Amino acid sequence: MATAPQKEAPLLSPELLQDWTADRAAADDQIHRSSQRAAASMAALIRPVVDPVPQASTYLSCCGLKLISPLQGLPSLFRAQTRHPLEPLTAAEISVAVATVRAAGATPEVRDGMRFIEVVLVEPAKQVVALADAYFFPPFQPSLLPRTKGGPIIPSKLPPRQARLVVYNKKSNETSIWTVELSEVHAVTRGGHHRGKVMSSKVVPNVQPPMDAVEYAECEAVVKDFPPFREAMKKRGIEDMDLVMVDPWCVGYHSEADAPNRRLAKPLIFCRTESDCPMENGYARPVDGIYVLVDMQNMVVIEFEDRRLVPLPPADPLRNYTAGETRGGVDRSDVKPLHIIQPEGPSFRVDGHFVEWQKWNFRIGFTPREGLVIYSVAYVDGSRGRRSVAHRLSFVEMVVPYGDPNAPHYRKNAFDAGEDGLGKNAHSLKKAISSTLMLTLRTSLGALKRLKIVFACMKRIMESYGSIRIGEQDGKIEAEVKLTGILSLGALQPGEVRKYGTTIAPGLYAPVHQHFFVARMDMAVDSKPGEAHNQVVEVDVKVEEPGEKNVHNNAFYAEEKLLRSELEAMRDCNPLSARHWIIRNTRTVNRTGQLTGYRLVPGSNCLPLAGTEAKFLRRASFLKHNLWVTPYAHEEMLPGGEFPNQNPRIGEGLATWVKQNRSLEETDVVLWYVFGLTHTPRLEDWPVMPVERIGFMLMPHGFFNCSPAVDVPPSSVDMDLKENGMVAKPCHSGLIAKL
């Protein structure tokens, strides 16, 4: 009889749990009775492969798991499961999920109205990930196997993969969430067989899901075809609609008029000077004074006002972002080529979505909402083996509130993840000394979109706004956001000056604003997936009071405070005390007897400057503190709730979850770090803002017994650069810079 691995509430159904677990005694008995029959039975559960993993039995025997030599089928188990439970959905899986939901529509009208906002993997329970990593996929770590009194549990197969779909129906203005089980999914070929099963579906009332690119294009066409809009543009001297740019923005929530019973957008209007110029900066001429409200469900303009006639700003000669346009056609000529050479190839290895770089390893994922997701971050530490640092890292929200109280700028409070999607707007890198993987997204109408993610040398993984750098040789993990782009401008009346921004050019000004990012860090410091052995302490550096203990008046010390509950863990940065936080394992110590840990080190940061009653803070209560800590809960993923678009509910998401005031003293902790920047625009930010960096760092704090970088050898590469008569100086990490 199979036994459950834990007394806690099962994360899988009992039937499925019995199907893929068995205790040690039962497994041993089965093997001894009929090893060949057992091998055939287990091999039938999975797709066989030709290429078995060498020395697979060694991986299991080191954990005390018996493998009898006649069991020839078992080594192939390691490669037989073709998709790791955390790998993103394939194109075939997405197609199956979409087709399954479409087919489940009650009527043809319902099916025709479906728009697929998100199609993502249902991430499995952490115990499932542990079993996959232990037994079926790299890094093949049998110590992760759950244990009973009799020994490790032997899995026979992994549970089926599932997809989660957020569907908006244009016909009914309803949002629904579907879960589809995927089975026997093969590549899309002639005669290919696909099968999906709807496991659940529900309509979510009183919400609006994120917008998509198809809707944006439709909105622009509707506004341009609206006769009163054409007349208003004609008053401003514009009759060629090809010159006009309509930039739809979600309305947010400012009053009952913005309630989610309607799907609304309030576009901003811009006008080019040359419609046929591919590098024309269309955002350089904002059209002020026109108010448009679009019903995005029915794609009609429902409100329109030409409130005031503000002259179009003159064409700024410095508006475009090419040297030929802004510098008289002269590029600087003093930039010499820089070549990065790795004569023996890269130091990293990519196997599917599994990445190894020296002693680091982790998995890569991707979602339409978050973009890049990094799973199962671990460090191979000599005899201590593979030591976990984090289970899941990602940026989960980005909010950009503007500081001008005038229309339309007071409505500029974009939730770039929740109203749109960081992943949906990510772009493929074009060049890198790298390996690549392909990720697939689905557009709302069902078309597939392929996205190439590039692993560059120096182990940096980039997306449009942010990067998480895994793999510093000293054990650090760095999260960095590079802010760049084109300013969102407003038009000025002749002679007008606005104190809520910076005049950029005649008739143009850029409002002050802030950028906030939320990093969600599901930590697992020295923990197996799902273990509840972490805690968080806050560290402040204190100055010793003058007196007998401080006769030289030079004394200061670090003071720790355990964050015991969620409400106690709502914290802010304090640079005056060098405040930081340490995530510790309560059951693992280093050579000095101290608990092992990782330190969260803030970078430059800020808090919202808007008043506490600002409307956007109803939906972004998570911005009120720099740090939040919660115990892990599978459904708690998005700090503003799943549907912040037009959300009338106050404090949904993180601010509501922490009211439970759950204990944090020894648990599976999740850290939510909020960091931001206040942007007072400069002339140098025009026409394209130079990169500005903000971020934070995770660094080992007593995690290692000494510096993990001491074993990094000096480079042995020496290259004679005969073409310029110089000898390159060797650099560490095997990189040669040729200048």
UniProtKB/TrEMBL annotation:
InterPro entries: Cu_amine_oxidase (IPR000269), Cu_amine_oxidase_C (IPR015798), Cu_amine_oxidase_C_sf (IPR036460), Cu_amine_oxidase_N-reg (IPR016182), Cu_amine_oxidase_N3 (IPR015802)
Single Gene Ontology MF annotation: quinone binding
Span of domain Copper amine oxidase N3-terminal: 209-311
Statement: the UniProt record of this protein carries the keyword Cytoplasm: no
Sequence ranges assigned to domain Copper amine oxidase catalytic in this UniProt record: 338-432, 472-709
Keywords: Copper, Metal-binding, Oxidoreductase, TPQ
UniProt-listed GO biological process terms: amine metabolic process
Family matches, as SUPFAM superfamilies: Amine oxidase catalytic domain, Amine oxidase N-terminal region
Cofactor note text: Contains 1 topaquinone per subunit.
Oxidoreductase found in the keyword field: yes
PTM description: Topaquinone (TPQ) is generated by copper-dependent autoxidation of a specific tyrosyl residue.
Pfam families attached to this UniProt entry: Cu_amine_oxid, Cu_amine_oxidN3
Cofactor list: Cu cation
EC number: 1.4.3.-
Segments forming a coiled coil: none
Family per similarity comment: Belongs to the copper/topaquinone oxidase family.
Protein name: Amine oxidase
Upper classification of the organism: Eukaryota, Viridiplantae, Streptophyta, Embryophyta, Tracheophyta
